[in-house]
Amino acid sequence: MPNGPSGMHRLGNSGRVGAAMRWFGMFSRRRRYEELAESMREHIGEKVDELVSEGMPREEAEFAARREFGNVTRIEERSREVWQWPRVESLWADAKYALRQMKRSPGFAATVIGTLAVGIGAAAAMFTVVDHVLLKPVPYYDAARLLSMRESDGSASASFVPWLDVGQWLKESRSFQEIAFSTTLGRQDFLEGATAATHVNGEQVTANLFETLGAQPELGRGFLPETPSFAPGKNTGTIVLSDAVWRSEFGGDRSILGKVVRINETPYTVIGVMPPGFRYPADAFSNRSAQVWVALQLGPSDAQRTDRPPQYQVIGRLRRGATLHSAQAEMATIQKLVAAQYSDPDDRRDHSEVVLERYGNSLVDADVRKALLALLAASGVLWLIAGLNVTNLLLARGTARQREMAMRGALGASRRRVMQQMMVEGLVLSGPAALLGTGLALGSVKLLAHELSQRLPLPVPATPDGRILLALLGMTVISALMSTAWPALLALRAPIEPALRQGGLQAGTGRGQHRMRAMLVAVEVAMSLTLLVACGLLLRTIYTLRHVALGYRTDHIIVADLSIPSFRYAGKNMLQMLYMPMLGRVQQQHGVQAAGLMNEVPLGNTFNILLGLRMDEGSSSSGAKPGASITAMLKPVTPDIQRVFGFRMLAGRYFDAEDTPTSEPVVVVNPAFAREYAPNRSNPASILGMTMWHLQENKPLHIVGILERERQKSVAEESQPEVQVCLCQITPASSFYPIAEGIAMDLAVRTERPTEEMVPELRDILRQASPELAGANITTMDQIVEDSYGSQQLAAHLLEIFGGSALLLCVAGLYGLLAYVVTQRTREMGVRIALGAPRGNLLWLILRQAGAMLLTGVAAGVGLAWASARLVRGFLYGVQAHDGWTLACAAALLFLSGMLAAYLPARRAASVDPMEALRAE
Amino acid sequence: MPKERESRDLFPGALELMILQTLYRKPMHGYALAQYIKAVSDELLQIEEGSLYPALQRMLKAGWLESERGMSARNRPVRVFRVTVAGAKRLEAEMSSFEKMFAGIQRVLGAETA
To answer: Is the ipTM of this complex over 0.85?
Structure first.
């Protein structure tokens, strides 16, 4: 108790306090408090005097008066509260106290804040991506009722649907409110402007598409209701523009309605503009938002099922009350009748089943979905580790502060008050952590955006979703509150007296508590090991991928991906009119060593042509498969492409200047083709000289060369059979011509000059060649290779971050815990040394404790990693999911870093000065 | 930790009312106030210090009381509380409403026994 009886006689010097002083509130508060204290002292003094006058000895009287009065501090505090905004002020005081605490141990605060921030940041970033890609419904009205409808043979792959089948669905199904279908307008669609034409994505759609999607034009109207028909209808020749096209091409001019625009030289009247953000199909990859829609009209080829009828993308809106399940059942029945109408047994099988899938789900392929979920799980684990770590640190500190809690209790602090104070401390710690975490999430989403855009069909938001961030922050704050409040609660429940007793048992040595903290560390270690193993597997995958021999050079190559405005060259030879002059100009450019064209550069995955051909029977030599049908990728190229990529020949020759439209038509094949179709399997070169039907009438193709093994579509996959053919030999007379030359082409340029210098020059040349080409996507071959690592690269990068953070957190957690343990056991250490324990033993004592935690964690972690390896299997290349080496290395890394972290506190324990330790306290 | 007990035996405002009434007659200091109420109520009412001091502070804050220097019964210089004009008005208002309420309660209780 602060004041002895003598203090009671001391008079305040504040004098009379006028009523006016009330108005000063806050300012005169100190004086108020003084007066209050005086009043209470006077009260007790008066009582004492009275008791004394009744004959009680003064000492006894003082004691009795005090006992009767009760807890002075508490009453004083409660009386003072009258003058305060009680909650706010005590909260503010607590916050100030917490800040002082932070200042006193900045290391501790930094660890807690950093740890929480990492956890929040990683999880928020991943949640943002996953939420956006997997969870957010596509931007249509009541999108859960929109189903993509496809046909399949019962295997995993499904295909679009011919008209006759859709027509039957329309007639017979009852589960759908609307069924709409669509197909692309042309191979490449160019909207003609004043000077240049712009590449857009045109889609022919049924009149009810917008209604099916629940969308309405922002401006004008949609298509007039009509059923799909073979004759021109009410909507023929009309077009609806996307907001993006309207704004970029027509400057958002509202008088656009009724005007005529030309797409690939066909005129259309604009009847409407869709609202911003509307897209269909939602997965349109290139020029994502630049879409236009015209009415679909059926053609003669739609009227039959036998000769490859056009196939349509079908989308249906479920009737209210119908479920995916019930629709599936109904469609299965209908499809039996549909399939029965296919006469060819193969066709019948191919159309035997209907695949219904929520439209939103159909946009993301299963691989990406799995990848994202696995990464989400990883980030969740990181968040958990961070949470555990902080809990452990706060618990350790909480027990170290047991005395403080006891003291507060003894001084009259109510349990609620102490809890409040501890929780404010938790808030003060988690607040900055939350801010920092938000920053990290923002940064990482931005960093990931590029890689994600390579893999995901939807644009990735540049900022994390607010709701997710809020939820995570909430969870983090709650967890921080709990981990601060819990030790306080434990401390308050403990009896005050032993904790306060001088030299009594030091706090926090309770067996149960220690065991629990050790367990938390072990759990942390186990989870970190899981992340580290996954990270290790991905790193090995990336390493292996990077060391795969690609079969061509990738350095110093610039690639431009061109969409060819072939409508401008109708009836003309594009090679003569477009490609040759363009190549000529590029080659004359300073610093260009070689330039060539190829419909798609290796790993480009832009535009591939699949070729179905037949081996020429007449040419077959011994052991060949005469008349065998051949499926291969067709790659039209110019001869110089060899110099760009450095293609090497296994046998024979590549194209050269001798190959002309009039010379003998020749092809070059890849080893996969030779292996598949060579007459002598053991000698691929035996395919040289064989011929294939027909590039041009009566001119068989001669195989003149075999390329060395190369990676064609992805670094991880073996190549498919491939046939390269010289562009110059595909003349307009050839049936290949429109596909091989008129859709897309990659221009590849080998140059020593820096890319950023070359790109503007290239764009100039492209613009001169044809204005539409100026906007081509230009990148480097190295970047294409890099991008082709795709999900592995993404997963590896993320797991590097997650694994690294987990390791750090783990080490920090272990260090923090042991450091506390050692501090708490300083006396014990001192006693041991004083009694003659060798210092080595003490070192060993602490290290053993750490080792036990680590080993427990590692053992559990090995099991966990083994079980969870399944999740990453899909990403791996050249390494097994259960790779012993990776597991061993990760475990060793974790164990050694852990022991290193333990060594510092252990050394401190061993170097305790017994005199100091025993004198302490 | 000492167990804390709120004064629950009085209805809200009763303590304030009694303090106002007591101090209106004669300004007193805290101890004398408690003793006075105890004595006048034949020890039926015992004002706990834990309730008294917060109540006094509340009333000071509300401007019903002011404090000034005075002398205790034992001639100690003490801080005495005096009812202000606002306090007197308050007392009047409270008294009349209290009387009404009290009359009402009595009627209800009387009706029950009748």
So the answer is: no
